[in-house]
Amino acid sequence: MLKTTTADHSHGHSHGHSHGHSHGHSHGEGKHSHTHGSIDPEITSSERGIWAVKWSFVGLMLTVTLQAVVFWISGSVALLADLIHNIGDAVTAIPLGIAFFMARWKPNQRFSYGYGRAEDLAGVAIVSLVLLSAFITGYESIERLLHPQSLDHLGALFVAAAIGFIGNEIVALFRIRVGKEIDSVALVADGYHARADGLVSLSVGLSALGLWLGYPWADPVIGLLITLVLLRIVWDSGKTIFTRLLDGVEPETINQVRHAVSHVSAVKNVKSIQARWIGRKLHAEVAISVDSTLSVLEGAAIVTQVKDQIQTHMPYLTNVAVQVQPDVL
């Protein structure tokens, strides 16, 4: 049996362009270009992840500070609740920052695949925080529906709601964009968490408007709607994160590998295909059968062709191991 492994390209991000490019990995327009061997792309993507987390943390703390000033002026309990939500969102930067930092550590004998899984665990922590926020928001909404409360200083409350919404939305767009660039599920999930908190901030302003118009039920009803949004985010993000924790991939990934192998005519049969994500790295193992009369050198040449085809069709795939077996009837 011949088993070979590709060089670790460590792209760490999905290029999102068509499969029609050459194996030279010409990225076009210099958007993702890099020179192999000069800088480890995994380190680069982790640095960019840390950079995104750091600046989103700064943006959220600025938002929290401005809202705290308005809270000190108005004394609004609703604004205090929104303030707590935004502080909670900022705190999620801590486990993500740790995960990105650990991803830079080199593999060793105990952790031979590296520490990329720490990012998936950070994603679990983030989803858990969103779920906790949903429970708190739902509980408070039901309480206010049963026991309506009056809000004072509605003008200041509108300003604080606008600050919270705009600040969170900017952070959300920033995190989601960078998360997709480096293929970080955890960072994208954290971006949606920021967006959810922005909607919570917006709901404070809408509920204040409803109270100003004489509808005391507006605040709790909007709160319940936000709870549904939070639960939807938990469901969508949780499916992706827990799928990866269980070494699952999208079925399309396996189909892409099979399609790439089919371009090598010397491959008689594809015995098995396995793939899994470890953080932002996609690993694959492929077992193929070839003519039993071929020499070892000829088998090695076929393996090279298979690896080239897979890397061409899936440039974001970090590492692929190919096993060759004789085709026996």
What does this protein look like?
It is a multi-pass membrane protein. Residues 1-39 are annotated as: Disordered. Residues 1-11 have a biased composition (Basic and acidic residues). The chain has 329 residues and is an alpha+beta fold. The protein has 2 domains: 42-107 and 114-246, Alpha-lytic protease prodomain-like (Up-down Bundle), CATH 1.20.1510.10; 251-326, Alpha-Beta Plaits. The chain is built from 9 helices and 4 strands, in the order βααααααααββαβ. It has a 4-stranded mixed sheet with strand order 1-4-3-2, with helices on one face. Helix 9 links the parallel strand 3 (281-291) and strand 4 (317-327). Helix 1 runs antiparallel to helix 2, helix 1 (41-74) packs antiparallel against helix 3 and helix 2 runs antiparallel to helix 6 (185-212). The relative contact order is 0.15.
Distance between the termini: 17 Å
User: What's the level 1 CATH class of the largest domain?
Assistant: Mainly Alpha
Shape estimate? elongated
Largest sheet entry: 4 strands, mixed
What order do the helices and strands follow? EHHHHHHHHEEHE
The strand order across the widest sheet is: 1-4-3-2
CATH topology of the largest domain: Alpha-lytic protease prodomain-like
Structural class, please? alpha+beta
- Approximate helicity band: 55-70%
Portion of residues in beta strands equals 5-15%
Q: What is the CATH homologous superfamily assignment of the largest domain?
A: Cation efflux protein transmembrane domain
Give the rounded overall mean pLDDT: 76
So how many helices?
9
Total domain count: 2
Radius of gyration: 25 Å
What is the correct CATH architecture of the largest domain?
Up-down Bundle
Instruction: List how many beta strands DSSP finds.
Output: 4
Q: Unreliable stretches, pLDDT < 50, 5 or more residues?
A: 1-44
